[in-house]
Design a protein that fits this description.
alpha/beta; 12 helices; binds adenosine-5'-triphosphate; binds magnesium ion
């Protein structure tokens, strides 16, 4: 039986630079999803970024926040340029959005095609609200000179919810694989990353809490395996043996570093998506910036954004729709005929988008 049609309201925040070129591609892929999925979209154009700051004196207008909060199910965020030197009153809109909407998880899948010489298929789940990034820093003078200190805060609540969402992601990935997607993994595995051998209280709490959350029956019964890795040896293994990882869960700072490091494993920033996830809300966001060097040339790789749109759908419980987008993108990459210049091809953004839309 056909399900009733679900309409998702999606905020579109292109931002600056190539954000304006790739976000429309994200919109088109959502609109092109087969009607049989029973999904419709209402899009709402919203502003944020450096250009917005220059027009309105704020990088994140209140209007954008309130529309996202009250009218939207999810959003796609492009990229924002930031001034090279600090400008009074300017601060990153995506950082502010994460706070205002309590988007506590930053999720970054890093994946190659299965036929790559060294295939990778992992997702890094980074806690996004605490750890050293609470920004409680002080500096004091001492007879030996200045001493600066920063608070590293780890809570049971934040550690538990990030581990729980990591477990859910592991299960969903397993479902998508079971539905026939080619994969390099046999079963769901979550790797908990920490440095509790040195930071026994903070990282110790993260470790114990994450372990406890991930041993809940709904994960254990579904075969989710848990592994731990000290962050320094993790970096080593991540580069030597990246195929060993499925889902990685980490506190904020380690997650930040690991997710950029892992992105370097796949050849182009133009391939790597992310999502900022909160309770019942997700913002898809390509990992790249506004790329001023290629802005306006029509050659930005849209794949990071298309994958971000799919990732957003995953968190809005539209797993099937997400799987269709992933499959169409993978098919384009596997064939390798219509690739953008960052991947060594000559295709324009438009040609890549058309090829992927055709495969949908
Ligand atoms: P920002 O300050 O906005 O982060 P940036 O100068 O750091 O801008 P990035 O967007 O981070 O630039 O990109 C780094 C490099 O990767 C640039 O050379 C850029 O052209 C390239 N790049 C980034 N995204 C893409 C993409 N989608 N397609 C092709 N090349 C890209
Ligand atoms: Mg950058």
């Amino acid at each position: 039986a056909a399900r009733t049609v679900r309409t998702l309201k999606i905020g579109l925040i292109p931002g600056d630079g190539i954000g304006k070129e790739v976000i429309p591609a994200g919109r088109r892929i959502l609109e092109a999803l087969p009607a049989s999925l029973g999904l419709k979209f209402d899009f709402i154009d919203l502003k944020a970024g450096w250009e917005t700051f220059q027009e309105q004196g704020v990088a994140l207008p209140e209007e954008t926040v309130s529309v996202l909060k009250s009218d939207c199910d999810g959003a796609l965020f492009g990229a924002v340029s930031s001034p090279t030197t600090a400008v009074k009153g300017y601060s990153s809109p995506i950082v502010a959005l994460r706070k205002r909407l309590d988007l506590y998880a930053n999720v970054r899948p890093v994946k190659t095609v299965v036929s790559a010489p060294k295939p990778i298929d992992m997702v890094i789940v980074r806690e996004n609200t605490e750890d050293l990034y609470v920004k409680e820093e002080t500096t004091r003078d001492t007879p030996q000179g200045k001493v600066a200190e920063a608070i590293k805060r780890i809570s049971q609540r934040a550690s538990s919810r990030i581990a729980t969402i990591a477990g859910e992601i592991a299960l969903r990935r397993q479902n998508i694989r079971a539905a026939g997607a080619p994969s390099i993994h046999k079963g769901p595995l979550v790797t908990i990353t920490h440095k509790s051998n040195v930071l026994s209280q903070t990282d110790g709490l993260f470790r114990v809490t994450a372990r406890e959350a991930l041993t809940a029956p709904r994960f254990a019964d579904a075969g989710v395996k848990i592994e731990e890795q000290i962050v320094d040896s993790m970096v080593y293994k991540l580069f030597r043996q990246p195929e060993a990882y499925d889902v990685i869960v980490a506190p904020n700072l380690y997650g930040d570093i690991l997710s950029d490091g892992a992105a370097a494993l796949v050849g182009s920033l133009g391939l790597v998506p992310s999502a900022n996830v909160g309770e019942g809300f997700a913002i898809g966001e390509p990992c790249h910036g506004s790329a001023p060097d290629i802005q306006g040339k029509g050659i930005a790789n849209p794949i990071a954004t298309l994958r971000s749109a799919a990732l957003m759908l995953e968190f809005l419980n539209e797993e099937q729709a997400a799987a269709k987008i992933y499959a169409a993108v993978d098919a384009n990459l596997e064939e390798g005929k219509l690739l953008s210049p960052d991947l060594g091809g000559t295709a324009t953004t438009e040609e890549v988008v058309q090829d992927i839309l055709r495969r949908l």
